[in-house]
Amino acid sequence: MAKVNIKFGKITPFGVIFPVRRLFSRYMGHVIDNVLGLRCTSFGYQYSEIFGSLSSVYFCGGDCVEDVTSHLMPHLSLDPTLRTCSSDTILRGISELATANTTYTSDTGRSYDFNTAPKLNSLLVKALTSTGQLLAGKSYDLDFDHQFIETEKYDAKMTYKKFTGYSPGVAVIGDLIVGIENHDGNANVRFHQQDTLERIFSNLEQNGIHIRRARMDCGSCSRKIVETIERHSEHFYIRANCK
Questions:
Q1: Over the stretch 85-95, which tens digit does the pLDDT of each residue have?
Q2: 3-state SS of 49-118?
Q3: Is the Cα dihedral 162, 165, 170, 172 positive or negative?
Q4: Are the C-beta atoms of residues 171 and 199 closer than 8 Å to each other?
Q5: Number of C-beta neighbours around residue 104 at 10 A
Q6: What does the pLDDT look like over 161-215, one tens digit per residue?
Q7: pLDDT of residue 42
Q8: Is the torsion defined by CA of 119, 209, 172, 49 positive or negative?
């Protein structure tokens, strides 16, 4: 026979988020704040708390950042040990992490913007090593490609796929993203790709991650790019451009 318990305290349908947030704070809080730096010294929210608040939106089925204030705050505030910030603070914190674009000029005089986001890329790899998803001293296979993301943002450029958007270069190990740099959508995928790869490889090596095999498509088939890949991997596989 089932036992019926009468609860006099407040009950929330999102109670499972509390142990998740505690684990996040225990294992990731210091990593985030060490890499990104302290956001405040007395009153305010650290970046680790902002990231934790943002993750609560998605773990609790939210659709947008504003849900943390309009729907989730009464539930998340039931745990006195966790600090959840408002949607305005989350958006301000994200804006603070934005970095200026790096502009490259081609031989024909056209300019293209790249956004390297060095701190966030460093955090990306350190988070993976801190959680044991990547192990320092071990060798991995890395895949790199450009992804075309359609968007109508004010700075989006027309891509060769006939829509406006961005074309970030993305490096993955298995299903883990280990490096990402945003590029103008109209930039040729080979344009300064060796610089993007150099930063991604160097970030991995600084964290003790070695690349056994690098795999890329024909968009990486050029002398400068191949020389960069050869310096940072034991073997590489690049589909030749036969045109």
A1: 999 999 999 99
A2: HHHHHHHHHHHCCCCCCCHHHHHHHHHHCCCCCCCCCCHHHHHHHHHHCCCCCEEEECCCCCEEEEECCH
A3: negative
A4: no
A5: 16
A6: 999 999 999 999 999 999 999 999 999 999 999 999 999 999 999 999 999 999 9
A7: 81
A8: negative
